Amino acid sequence: PSSSSSSSASLLVNKGALFVTAECTNTMLAFGPAQIPGVPPVVSVNGKPPGTKVKADHFKVEVAVGPTHPSGQYWHVFLEKEVEAEIVAGNPQQLRVVGAYSGYVQVAAGEDNDAAAELLAAHAGSYAGGSAASVSFDIEGDSGSVIFDWAAKGDRLGMLTLAHHAHVLDASVATSPYWCIKGDMGLVEGAQWRLKYDLPAATFGDEPLGGADAELEKQLTIDVDVINARTCPGYNVTGNGLAGNWNMELYAYARDLTSYVDVAIAAAALGKQQIADSVTQLVAKCAQPLLAKQATAPQPCEKPVNNSLTCARDVVGVYYDHKWGGVVTGWYSRFAEHYCEPAPGCPTCCDNPTGWNPLGQYGNAVYSSHLYQYGYVLKVLAWLLHRAKQQHTTGLSPQMLDDIKKLALLYARDIANPDDTADPYFTAHRGKDFYDGHAWNEGYSYSGRIQSWLNEQSAGESINAYYAVSLLGHVLGDANVRDYGRVLLAMEVLSARQYQQLSKQQRPKQPYEKMVDELRCLPLLIGNGATGATFQGPNALFQCGITVLPLSPATDSLITDKQWAQEAFDWMAFKVKQNGVCKYPNPLVDKVNPCPGPEHGADWFGNEFRCCPLNEGAPANLWKAFPDWFVYQYMILSYADPTTARAKLAIQDAHKPTTDMPFPYLNTANEIVGYHVITRTAALHHIARRTTTTTTAAAAAAEASRRRIDVV
Question: Going edge to edge, which strands form the sheet with 706-711?
């Protein structure tokens, strides 16, 4: 700004904008590099060299490119009125406007060989209104429109589209010379976009199956016995006799409890209501730690005495955070990295006396992974409300059910609050990106700084979160909550299909084309980038599994292309054969444990049939196939060939491996080791639900009432 106190400049930021636009008042302007070594210099402005002046309202700036600084890269600067500017020679080399300036400023790249010059000139002077832009939703039955109002200024607004927009945008999309990691970008003119989505049904999948299924019924009996013997997730997993909520973080606890819910859903679909009630009552019991109300604010851990971990507390407790408006957990933890390790130079000192671990619980305390974690919690709570609403036995009193309803809405507001003006206690939308269509998993510190990298690393769990919001609205009879969840879900599945399901048969354009040579599932989107890495490791089963798990009726909207499903399965099978299966302890044939870990001897088999990528003795495991993830390649196959997929899940003895499943389903302690997260009951039901005739009330009675939800 100039020295005047009335100087101001407002930067208007909208994804898809052709220009970087600012509105200026009495401002000093300069364009070009600051004093940064290696920045290519300006070659000319409107054909004039450095050291001269130029007068115009449009400056075509030619800059050098590459290590030898040849010419050929162009930037364009558009102003509301004509000004005189000096092309400064020297360092920094800049274009400086003479005197204070008021009006709009627009800057854009001309792309290679200045291919975008004509397009930019045609749309200069028009731009979206930054924070004044808004999104709203128009719902009619099973169709929902997402409406972008760009708050346009000027008479010819042009905005760039991503590849997925073309499937749902109610407008003509022209080509443009611009592209990004997600493909070529189109151009749409107009002050408003209307994106029309088919909305997935809000159903648990507990509708009656069309016929008997003896194999599924037999497996249901096995899994109910396993669940009853295990009681709640995580009980005594470390041999300490403590309940699971003292041994597992909220994510794993709620995720594993959701697998109980899926068994209850399958039982209900089979008409085994007593079994469904029994499992649901266990879910209600195990959900109590998730319902606990914290009496005090989170406190630092006690300093350990004699190197013991004395900070033992319920690790799933949640708190309301006034700073950013959300529900957080994992504030202080005995699992904190370097929790009271000897400090440098002081062997008797504690290097982390409070147990503060901001990235513990996957960064929950700094707002990372909320979608992934709270989606599981919401599904558990919504199921309890659903069964109670159907007059089934849950073991929950009316007061407890009312508490569950309130808590479920808190979690839903944390990840899917439509309006932080009407509901100021929670941030709007949290990680949802309405332009890209999918959510970002991110975290930010109390200073507002991004704490963890911007990424989408688990599309399936983002889908599960919005699916769970829709279920909650369905159960509560709240059409706004239900349909807001359905719209967010529809956006999520379309973007996942477009950007994370890769196919050689339908090769995308550059730059994704090269990824298709190596991948069929792209697990990790990073800002304007992507990678084949996953949290578990860089192998094919992880790469595809993490884009689809957990399985639910929402997965039906995610995997709609039979050709891709077959291609993805074939690719996973090839990679498994190419890379082999990881080393694992098999007490049936091994006399020595190949990966006992650092705390056990080779004669210990307490981790039988469990892959252990980080344990000593098997450093290459990370790159090899994990047998407990095999189920996901068959579940993806089930969308192309359900008969073959189900045959590959067949077993004669739950304690013995098969040709297609290298792990037995159960180990000698009757613990599930053959399937990761999911149960075999849920897997078989997921196939049966789609291959038998069902009575789906939700699909038969689409509500035709027209509503509009406005979102700031």
Answer: 192-198, 143-149, 134-140, 706-711
538-to-518, 523, 531, 559 alpha-carbon distances in Å = 12, 10, 9, 22
Q: What's the distance, Cα to Cα, between the start and end of the chain in Å?
A: 30
- In tens, the pLDDT along 189-224 reads 999 999 999 999 999 999 999 888 999 999 999 999
Q: Which amino acid appears at position 245 of this protein?
A: N
Contacts of residue 265, Cβ cutoff 8 Å, sequence gap at least 6: 204, 205, 206, 276, 383, 682, 685
Give the number of C-alpha atoms closer than 13 A to the C-alpha of residue 48, restricted to the C-beta side: 16
> Rounded to whole angstroms, how far apart are CA atoms 207 and 689?
9
The CB-side HSE value for 290 (13 A sphere, CA atoms) comes to 34
Interval 622-642 mean pLDDT: 94
Can you list the alpha helix ranges (DSSP code H) found in 390-434? 398-416
Residue of 154, 155, 147 whose CA lies nearest to 192? 147
Side-chain half-sphere CA neighbours of 549 within 13 A: 26
What is the CB neighbour count within 10 angstroms for residue 58? 14
Beta bridge partners of 54: 85
How far apart CA 370 and CA 532 sit, in angstroms, is: 22
Q: What is the model's pLDDT at position 8? A: 92
Q: Rounded distance, CA 344 to CA 562, Å?
A: 58
* Neighbouring C-alpha atoms within 13 Å toward the C-beta of 426: 23
Q: What is the pLDDT of residue 300?
A: 80
Cβ-based burial of 321 (10 A; exposed 0-12, middle 13-18, buried ≥19): middle
Burial (CB < 10 A; 0-12, 13-18, 19+), residue 187, is buried
Collapsing DSSP to helix, strand or coil, 237 comes out as coil
Helix then strand then coil, % of the chain, to nearest 5: 35, 20, 45
Nearest Cα to 435, choosing from 125, 188, 235? Answer: 188
What are the two backbone dihedrals, phi and then psi, of residue 232, each rounded to the nearest 5 degrees? Answer: -85, 155
Other CB atoms within 10 Å distance of the CB of residue 156:
13
* Stated length of the chain: 712
| H helix and E strand count, the chain | 18, 23
A 10 A CB-CB count for 527 gives: 13
Listed residue (676, 437, 380) closest to 558, CA to CA: 437
- Nearest CA to 305 out of 353, 259, 265 is that of 353
